[in-house]
Amino acid sequence: MARIIGGIGTTHVPSIGKAIADGKQNDPYWSPFFRGFDYVHKWLAVEKPDVAVVFSNDHGLNFFLDKLPTFAIGAANEYRNEDEGWGIPVSKSAAGDADLSWHLTNRLVDDGFDLTICQEMLVDHAVTIPMSLMWPGEGAWPVKIVPISINTVQHPLPSLARCLNLGRSVGRAIDAYDRDIKVLVVGTGGLSHQLDGERAGFINKKFDLLCMDELARNPDALTRYTIPQFVELAGAQGVEFLNWMAMRGALTGQVTQVHRNYHIPISNTAAATIVLENAGTAARHAA
Ligand code: DHB
Ligand code: FE
Q: Were 34 and a residue from 25, 146, 184, 253 both cysteine, which residue would form a disulfide, CB within 3.0 to 4.6 Å?
């Protein structure tokens, strides 16, 4: 049976890609952020996931305002990146696990999540930057992915509760998957940031820390915030935290935070990394 090993939440700021291309990981500006991944690398080297289900938001590379699904899933065996205009190198492709994508899609639609099914899908920095952070270096990434896209751009956005429940549906579906694979769940973006308008540069450390605390121990508590309240507290792009909510929802077992890093700023963003371990149903039954 498939096993959910845990979840990782991480910022996806594009300029991280430029820092990687320029080898600036140890520069004083970048080091406090990149050092936050030392633990992640050690954890992944031990856990060795086969597949990563990645919740993220597209920023206009694949979907645009004219057609923007609330939830979309990739069902392909390869996902390419293209030039997004940020001045960062075009990324290598990610391998996909189309079989798992179709399994998840069947279960999710049964659960009332009407996903847009994408047999072709480009992935942008919201997928490629986290992949490069988790598995740095040359060569192919050592996991296949299933990308799930959540609309955090064009209002109305799905609520925090709905994204948590989307994740729960994904978690149940993975638990029921009859292949012997280890699955990592990833949520990208955030934390607080606003890129435009009068509040450009807005960051709210107190709220970010509260979100990370609650995410680990009681994510349902966060569903008390409406989307307008969340925008006010975290910034217009801080709603990318919806991807973290979905990631957390997919952790169906006993959840423990084993690592956290928080650093202000990376570009315009409060940069955060979290690793949540999931003692899954199989482990609990064995105990
Ligand atoms: C930045 C943050 C983002 O989440 C993004 O998608 C693009 C840019 C930034 O802080 O520069
Ligand atoms: Fe973003």
A: 25
